[in-house]
């Protein structure tokens, strides 16, 4: 496991892109399939290449859809100190407390993952294969982004500590 984490860290350093980079996002979605319970594996393993290939779709949308940008990060330290008890878990409560403009400015990835989960659950209920796969590939991307340390800090590019450009 330590070798895998080091491998991913090295890839993310050498890849010019947002987040993990395209190669790592594809690999993360690919490997995540093998962590699923057997009941889900029968659906996901035969479609592992599709899930891997589309792991980067959310980053591709960043270039075309302005609303996409804040879905990939949260500068959580803007909201105080760990464990961020002041930050509401529910989107509507967070809007009421901080305002939507502030939430969008500092990123919304945790709440967007919840939206993606609801979309995927709806797709399961409708037995909509295309929607299940699309939303599964997307949620894998957003969960991976939520685990990028520099996607969870206001100092996401080293601009506050004289390390400008560290994200790249
Ligand atoms: Zn992303």
| Mean of pLDDT | 88
| Uncertain regions spanning at least 5 consecutive residues | 4-17
H/E element sequence: HHHHHHHHH
- Structural domains: how many: 1
Distinct small-molecule ligands in the complex:
zinc ion
Helix content: 55-70%
Number of helices: 9
Your description of this structure?
The protein is mainly alpha-helical and 168 residues long. The chain has one domain. It has nine helices and no strands. It starts with a helix and ends in a 22-residue tail after the last helix.
Short description:
The chain contains 9 helices and no strands.
List keywords for this structure.
globular; mainly alpha; binds zinc ion; 9 helices; 168 residues
Write the layout of secondary structure elements.
Blueprint: H1 2-14, H2 22-33, H3 38-44, H4 48-53, H5 57-61, H6 91-98, H7 100-106, H8 109-125, H9 129-146
The chain binds zinc ion.
Zinc ion binds at residues 18-19, 58-59, 72, 141, 145.
